[in-house]
Amino acid sequence: MLTLYRDHNAVCCHKVELVLAEKGLDFQIVTVPLFRSAQYDPDYLLINPRGVVPTLVHDGATIIESTVICEYVDETFPTPPLMPGDSAGRAQVRQWTKLVDEEIHEAGSVLSFCAMFRDRMLVMEESEREERFRNVGNPGREDFYRSSVEDGVASRFAFRAVAAYERLVRDLEAQLATTGSWLAGCRYSLAEAAVTPYFARAEYLGLLDIWLAGRPATAAWWDRIKSRASFAAVLTGTLSNADLAEMSASGDKIRTEVEARRDEYLHAYSSRLARPHSPEEREKDGA
Question: Which of 82, 107, 158, 176 has CB 3.0 to 4.6 Å from 153, enough for a Cys bridge?
């Protein structure tokens, strides 16, 4: 039996659910509402001591961390395969999943906190808001959550998030020019499953077209992904009209600022490329 502990609108959970849907697997859902801090419930912490979602339980084995879960599912249920058959192709997939884990997950979280979660938290009593920040339990994550809520798109973390999305879509466009329809060969893979929820979140916030403009290969790739049954099952079939309306309204409030921060990043990036600079500077800019 497969049991997935998840929140219905958490991007890292969507990643796992996409893989399960692509495999055609039946699984039991246990909802862990993040905004109610249910991930810190003592009973859930016995299952996942890190207090995060998703968690997959399969025949007594407990697997945490979304990327690890996705690979576990693909290895345990090999049909249809979501990893290429060759080692170079598998390495290519892992480059994308590593990028999502190390940069894009934070970027998507920051955009969400600058938009809908900021709107929710600013109407709370200060004591409740502070308790939620303390519950994060990770000083680094608490820092960007707090900054995103208090400063919105003016936050330094928001600048990093906008830049991360810009680099992601730039690199997707270049990759698809080489590989064609999919990121790592001839079929949909774990790379697509990893990136999809973060594209979807940006689209539901009404921001994705900022990065897709002038990038036809990525726009066509995104249309292919949205036409899949897995996308309908996990995203369009799961999110309520209220969820979609909240994301759209909150994203609309920050769109102009996001566009301005993207322009700020592009100007800084082009200026650095136009003059001699050190390898350390290029790494800082994400070149």
Answer: 158
Q: What distance in Å separates the CA atoms of residue 36 and residue 173, rounded to the nearest whole number?
A: 38
pLDDT (mean) for 178-185: 93
Amino acid occupying residue 4: L
Same domain, 168 and 246: yes
How far is residue 281 from each of residues 10, 112, 276, 284, measured CA to CA in Å?
34, 28, 10, 5
Indicate if the pLDDT at residue 287 is higher than 50.
no
Residues 22 and 59 in one domain: yes
- pLDDT digit string, tens, across residues 67-94: 999 999 999 999 999 999 999 999 999 9
Tally of CB atoms within 10 A around 99 = 18
Rg (CA), the chain: 19
| Adjacent-strand bridge partners of 83 | none
Sheet arrangement for strand 61-64 = 28-31, 2-6, 55-58, 61-64
Q: Are 107 and 198 in contact (CB under 8 A)?
A: yes
What CATH number does the domain containing 257 carry? 1.20.1050.10
**Which residues partner with 61 through β-bridges?**
58
pTM: predicted TM-score of the whole model, two decimal places:
0.91
Between the two ends of the chain, the Cα-to-Cα distance in Å is: 45
Please state the rounded mean pLDDT for residues 143-157. Answer: 90
**Containing structural domain, residue 6:** 2-76
Partners of 29 in the β-ladder? 4
Report in angstroms the alpha-carbon separations of 247 from 113, 219, 255.
Answer: 11, 21, 12
Q: What three-state secondary structure class fits 161?
A: helix
Per-residue pLDDT reduced to its tens digit, 237-284? 889 999 999 999 999 999 999 999 999 999 998 877 666 656 665 555
